[in-house]
Amino acid sequence: EQQTEEVEVFSTPSYACQRRTTLDNHNAVLTDALSLLAENAELSGEDGRGVAFRRAAAALKALPLPVTRLTQLGGVPCLGGHSLRVIKDVLESGASPEVEALRRSERFKALKVLTGIFGVGVKTAGRWIGEGILTLRQLRDSGPTLNRAQRAGLRHYDDLNRPVGRAEAAAVAAVVEAAAGSVLPGARVTLIGGFRRGKQTGHDVDFLITHPEEGREAGLMPKLVSWLDSQGFLLYQKTNSNSYLEAAEGPARPASNMDRFERCFSVFKLPEEAGRGGAGAGGEGGPRPWRAVRVDLVVSPVSQFAFALLGWTGSKLFERELRRWAGHEMNMCLSSHALYDHRQSRYLRASSEEEIFAHLGLEYIPPSERNA
Ligand code: TTP
Ligand code: MN
Ligand code: MN
User: Fold this and answer.
1) pLDDT at position 246, please?
2) Is 89 a catalytic residue?
3) ipTM computed for the complex
4) Ligand 1 pocket residue status of 315, Cβ below 6 Å
């Protein structure tokens, strides 16, 4: 007689912004495999495939228990043939031959190392690999011309590839608050990105800065940057000015996916305080006096603050899914500046994230549950 074992059949909504995804991932082995395939697709310029694997991984991250059999996945969306094959291999033998081969491939390892340099994107890395440059040593020796960001990235490679901890993020926050308070009293600094979602480590620290009086924030970024520079906190910075004009552009011209706030990509020189020290500090003969940390700064007018907060808290897939939901299900256009309703031909105002979810007809998902 055949035993029928009780196995739960999972089911979950199809958009990541309809799901609560905490950092408590019960299917990390599966999602790591799918994320690696996503990463490889992105590093190979195949963004569509990348998104498909990201969506598959995100659907599994939202499940309440580990998956043990393929038959449990009947109600789980976003799983294409390729993802299912990988899941089947991992469930049956503990690993996917395709993923393991990828992990070992010279091209993938080289793409990881080279794009691990701040300022080096997929295209540049691909070109270098075509020229036979596969390692940092080869890059340093064969010396293709590097731009300012890449030179800073190479110089601080080890620091910038060492995860930033919460204590370090708090130390950066104290510096940014001092800077903002000094150049614009009353300015408000908010931690965004992964740390706002509750992550313990990040590849950078992200901040959103505003002022409760509309307009007072204009021109803040250059002042902030020059204060930070004069105090010796900057190893590198590149500032983009605000180019968003609601009236002039409107939803008919969504120019690009990139936001047009005042923003600054930077590398901070963060003093290492006694007793703090990040992971790995002290490994080579005691703590160093400072470490390099990637920091992103964004300035928004208070009227757009809720949209900026929602748009910069992430995760990246959660953001993408919110915009897809807005467009496909609500006939709206969501950006980090505004929400436009095509049916009513008007912008929908909001002063909190809760209001934006409500406009979108979605249940409110707090930052700690946006880890899709
Ligand atoms: P990241 O700092 O790249 O990602 P993260 O903070 O989620 O992860 P990590 O801990 O590794 O740093 O981006 C932060 C958020 O900002 C992310 O949700 C995407 C969003 N964002 C951009 O990065 N660029 C943009 O132009 C916009 C509009 C948003
Ligand atoms: Mn971040
Ligand atoms: Mn960032």
Assistant:
1) 55
2) no
3) 0.96
4) yes
